[in-house]
């Protein structure tokens, strides 16, 4: 599997045989789970359905998978406490396992589960997200060209 997300270690690994890299991540504060509305990170086999953010600044703000025209700063962050920031790049995930992480109320894609950038002030290595897999902005920019459409992703404990 080119991308492996280890929930226990809060670590994303990329390995295509030629390149091996690892980065700290932050997954769901509420743990792991498949159900829509659970705010949990889904487990199992996935693939990247869409790559969003080509050419954007590493800290460009995205909302609804579109750029807002903003670039994240500490000041902007302070003005909007509690905002769930999606920055720089989005790797939108789709489940591969019908009834487990695909279709119905357990559909990863319909839950809008992404690998995406997070503000510099947000800690990594601890579960704090709303279900997505958060990465440092510079790290997700580094991962982005390595992991295109169709790249396999395994999310596991």
TrEMBL record:
CDD domains: YkuD_like. The active site is at residues 116, 132. Pathway: Cell wall biogenesis; peptidoglycan biosynthesis. The keyword Transmembrane helix does not apply. The keyword Metal-binding does not apply. Keywords: Cell shape, Cell wall biogenesis/degradation, Glycosyltransferase, Hydrolase, Peptidoglycan synthesis, Transferase. Coiled coil: none annotated. Belongs to the YkuD family. This is L,D-transpeptidase. It comes from Parendozoicomonas callyspongiae.
